[in-house]
Each structure stands twice: as C-alpha cells, then as structure tokens.
Amino acid sequence: LFPQVDSANAGRVLASDAAVFLKKSGLTDLVLGKIWDLADTDGKGILNKQEFFVALRLVACAQNGLDVSLNSLNLPVPPPRFTDTSSPLLLSGTASSDLPWAVKLEDKVKYDAIFDSLNPVNGLLSGDKVKPVLLNSKLPVDILGRVWELSDIDRDGMLDRDEFAVAMFLVYCALEKEPVPMSLPAALVPPSKRKLLSVPGAMPLIPSSTSTKESHQSLPPVGVLAAKTPLTQ
User: Fold this and answer.
1) What are the tens digits of pLDDT across the range 183-196?
2) Is the N or the C terminus of the chain less surrounded, counting Cβ atoms within 10 Å?
3) Distance separating alpha carbons of residues 57 and 38, to the nearest angstrom
4) Number of other residues whose CB lies within 10 A of the CB of residue 202
C-alpha cells in the first residue's frame, strides 16, 4: 500500500496524498483526523513509512470497532480495507457490504435483551418506546437526536432489532466520550441494511405519500420530554 501513496518513491507521504487514500477506508473525517494526529507524531504533516504503517493499523482498528488509540496498535486485527480496485487487499467484489459489523456479537446479545424487554410490535419499536432508554443515558438531547437519526436507517420512525443495536452502540460510544459521527460509518451499517443502502434510489428518505413535515413528526420528540419522562428502564 505504501508505494501506491508514495508514487514518487520519496520514502514519505504528504498529508494531502494520505488524506485522499485514507478516505477510501469509509471512516468518517473525524476518525481519520484522530488517526492522522496519532500517526504524525511530531506534527510535520508528513508520514514516513513507519508512521504510515501506524495509520494503517489504526484504520484497521477503527473498521473493526476497536478504540482509535496507540493502545490498540498491538491488538490482532485483519488488514485495513480500502474501496480501491488497485489495492492488493481488495479482491474484486469486496465492498462495504463485506466489512465486519462494528457491533460485536456479545454486545448485540445485550442490546437484543433490552430490545425484547421493550415489547416490540412486529419486530419494531416506536420512538416513544426507545426514548426513555435514550434519555436514561443522560446524554445531551442534541446528541440523542443524532443517535436516533443515524440508527433509523430506513427512516420509518421505528427501530428494528439491528437498528436498535446501532442506537445502543452510539449511546455507549458517546458515554465513553467518543464523538457521535454526523453520518453512519460503513462499518456500523447492519449487514441486513447494506443492500438497502448500496442500491441508488432503493430507499426513499421520505415516503412519497406524506409531506416532509409529517415524516419529521414520526421522529420521537426527544427534546420535548427530556426532563419529565419517568425513566423506568
């Protein structure tokens, strides 16, 4: 991968070239910025080969749901994936749909238990049922609103089992002081939803039969009852 980015064979990678390449990892700019800061130890805006390897390891950690920190560098992770056909690590047909889901299996079991305890109807939870759980985290209302929007992937105002797991994952990240991304990273999209997102036009964001205003009203008004909702969960 290093020669791909260091095409001039200078033994170093400029920030601009590295940024273009690292964006192909599908990670958010926020995460990539953190990776760059950790790899570019002396802040000179250039990575040597060793520092570039550190950046690649951190990309792999982030894609596998691990912490982006120097402590994660020695953890066993598969090689990083980049959506670029010339990459030796990308065989044809490998896309974000093959990324391992960031929600780990043992966490999913816990999230599923909470989901079932909220009495889903036809495998779905309404915003009113999810809201007390979100509010119980004591996170700021604007953060919870973003968690809801990111996790309601098919925009139906309800969360299924996988979407609920995404919401819980984001809440726990926020509680660990990890920033909630502005858009859902590829690794966080549940495998069950990836086909939905990969086909252009397959997912109307707003049902054609309703106006924009009505579809927004299906989102739970997280802010309205922030202080008054009895937190039973």
Assistant:
1) 888 889 998 888 76
2) C
3) 11
4) 9
